[in-house]
Amino acid sequence: MNIAIIGATGHSGQKILAEAIERGHIVTAIVRDETKLAQDVKVIEKDLFDLTTADIEPFDVVISTFNAPAGKEEMHVSANQHLISIFEDAPQVRLVVVGGAGSLFTDERKTRRLSDMKDFPNAYLPTAINMGKSLADYKQSSATWTYISPAAMFDLEGERTGHYTLGGEVFHTNAQGESYISYADYAIALMDEVENGKHVGERISVVN
Question: How crowded is the C-beta side of 134, counted as CA atoms within 13 Å?
């Protein structure tokens, strides 16, 4: 497949880029500074907010790993609104979004989110709230999207086991009662969805 990765030099972007290359896909990195790329891949050197529909039309799938900097969490909303605007004009291109866990529901009736819990860390609350708003925007859009939430514990240094369990909008744990996923296994789950396209127009979640 012809795949582009927005933010390919970030933590999740690097893992997803490596997984996509390993699987033999044609990969383009969309980055602000191509000198930070370790891999020899095609590059579009652009800020996310400068991307146009023409930029993304050549691809089968575009993966967004955008993560707003601390203190500017509202950029989760504006960045994804920009992506929605250009992908609505290219419905043949799938957008797969690296999301967050804070917007997952804690009950089957979907009345309360993780971020609503009293013990939710204050440091992550602005990110969770704004990521939740961006997900709501996707659900109202005509873009062709999939939103993938990691587990509550998202481990950069965790091992690549090749094992994971998919869930939906409701927070779930593994057999040990843990909400955990390594970045490497998250990349596997995401690339499986990229290749299979089983959850278009849906938010899914993943744990080890």
Answer: 33
